[in-house]
Every structure is written in structure tokens, then in C-alpha cells.
Design brief:
This protein is an all-beta fold and 281 residues long. The chain has no helices and 29 strands. The strands form three sheets. Strands 17-18-20-22-24-23-21-19 form an eight-stranded parallel beta barrel. The chain is elongated and about 70 Å long.
């Protein structure tokens, strides 16, 4: 069944629908109804406008294509599985939560507290502006992704990132089993308390990165304008640029051209620091 060229503003307008296509419709109006497609399955939504709250709760097998979910479309997808979202603006707060098996492609996300407690999600060719982005989520992949925000990827587990640009402070706190490749990460206090974080061919900027980490690995990475790095961390690092300062790494091995300041106030004899060129520019 096709629902086309209609406007809905009532409560639960298409509640419990199954095997329908919604095309060129608007969910907006004076009745200000909620939960338009709640408890639905095998739904395709195309070229539609959502300006009301909670449209996609407890849905299964959902496709959203070329739609706009405005800032008034609060908490758009919760408790939903097997959703494919493409070419869509997700601009309401808490747009994705407690969902699983999600693919997001060519989307614009402007959503504080986006993606909490999500399992198995893929993001491709998309961008986000968000605070606490993807907190406590697991089994994630990001490719060609751009993020602006704060407190991102806290408590995430099992994540792969490639060709991403992250401008975000306090990212990766308490994360586990994360690999980031060929990416740029700019932010303060990066990755504190992380476990098994690996960065390969990345550029990192910002103050006090990588403190209190365990099983931290950097391979062929640049660290620019980074100071007080690696405090109390277990680290294996191959860095290709000078580092402003390194402070009290706990154990491991750090190889770099040089550090402008090596701050040792505690016994860190278990960490080997190799400066291949000690000339300070």
C-alpha cells in the first residue's frame, strides 16, 4: 500500500502499519500528535517531512530516504531495528537510541545526545553536530564521516573508523577496542581511560591527550600542538612529529623525533622514550 501526498498531525496517525510506502507526506500540524509510525514494520518512507515527536519507535525493517526530521522531531528513532537511513536530515534531539542494525548514508545529523546505547551501526559519507555522540554504543563503523561536538564516543566498544575528521573534546573516554585509520582528530583530553585504542596514520591535535590509557597503540601518527601527553598510560607509539611535552607515561615504548619537554616526576622506568632527533625547533 502507498500513502502519498498527505498531511498527518493526529496522534499515532499510522500506528502499527505494515508493508507500506509513505511518500511525499508531511507529519505536522495543529493537533501536534506523537508517534506517527510507532510499532510498525517493513516501512519505506520517502521524500517526507517530520515536524512532530517520536515518529519511529519500536519499528522493524525501516527505510527512510530523502526526508527531513526537524529540530521539533524529538527522539525520532528509539527501540528500532534494521533501519536504513539515507539522504536524510536528522535534526531533532536524541534522534537515535536503544536501536540496532542501523545504516546511515549521506545524512546530516544535528542532534544532541545522538545514538546512545546503539548496537551494530554503520555511518558512511555523513556528518554530525552533537554532544555525547554515540555514548555506550557498540559494534560501530564510520567511513568518510565528519563530527563537530563534545564528549563523543564515551564508553563505546568495538568500533572502526576510516577517513574521518573529528573535532571533539573528551572523545573516546572509557572506550574499548577502537581502531581509527587515516583520520584527523582535534580535541582536548583525548581518549582518557580508554582500553585497546589503536590509531593508524592519524593526525592528532589538542592538549593532554591519551592519559590513563591501557593498551594504547599509535602507528605512524602525527601529534601537533599536543602537550602533557600519555600521563599514566600504557603505550606503544610511533610518532612522526615532535610533541610539545610528555608527562609520566607508565609503561611501554614511545618513538618520536623529539619532545620539547619531558616531564618525569614519578618512576616511569618501564616506559622507553626514544628521541630520534633531539634538536628542538
Amino acid at each position: 500500500m502507498v500513502v502519498e501526498n498527505k498531511t498527518f498531525d493526529e496522534e499515532r496517525a499510522l500506528y502499527g502499519s505494515s508493508c507500506i510506502t509513505v511518500r511525499n507526506c508531511r507529519f505536522d500540524g495543529p493537533q501536534d500528535g506523537e508517534s506517527a509510525l510507532k510499532e510498525s514494520k517493513e516501512i519505506t518512507v520517502e521524500n517526507s517531512f517530520f515536524n512532530l515527536r517520536y515518529p519511529f519507535w519500536h519499528d522493524d525493517y525501516l527505510s527512510i530516504k530523502n526526508c527531513e526530521l526537524t529540530e521539533l522531531c524529538r527522539a525520532a528513532l528509539w527501540y528500532t531495528g534494521h533501519a536504513d537511513i539515507s539522504g536524510t536530515a536528522l535534526h531533532g534531539i536524541k534522534a537515535l537510541r536503544e536501536c540496532h542494525d542501523i545504516r546511515i548514508t549521506d545524512c546530516s545529523i544535528k542532534s544532541p545526545e545522538f545514538g546512545w546505547s546503539v548496537n551494530n551501526a554503520m555511518f558512511v559519507n555523513s556528518s554530525a553536530e552533537s554532544e555525547y555522540f554515540m555514548m555506550r554504543s557498540s559494534n560501530l563503523s564510520f567511513e568518510n564521516f565528519r563530527l563537530n561536538g563534545k564528549y563523543s564516543f564515551q564508553y563505546v566498544e568495538n568500533m572502526e573508523m576510516k577517513n574521518c575528521n573529528l573535532n571533539t573534546k573528551d572523545a573516546f573516554w572509557h572506550s574499548k577496542n577502537v581502531t581509527v585509520r587515516d583520520s584527523v582528530i582535534n580535541g582536548e583530553y583525548l581518549a582518557w581511560y580508554s582500553d585497546h585504542l589503536t590509531l593508524i596514520n592519524c593526525t592528532i591535535t589538542g592538549t593532554q591527550p591519551f592519559c590513563y590509557c591501557t593498551n594504547l597503540t599509535l602507528i605512524n601518527c602525527k601529534m601537533i600542538n599536543t602537550d602533557l601527553a600519555f600521563e599514566k598510560s600504557e603505550v606503544q607509539a610511533e610518532i612522526t612529529t615532535p610533541v610539545d611535552s610528555i608527562k609520566n607515561p607508565h609503561r611501554g615504548k614511545i618513538t618520536l623525533p623529539h619532545t620539547k619537554e619531558l616531564i618525569i616526576t614519578e618512576d616511569c622506568s618501564k616506559c622507553e622514550i626514544i628521541q630520534t632527533d633531539k634538536k628542538i625547533s
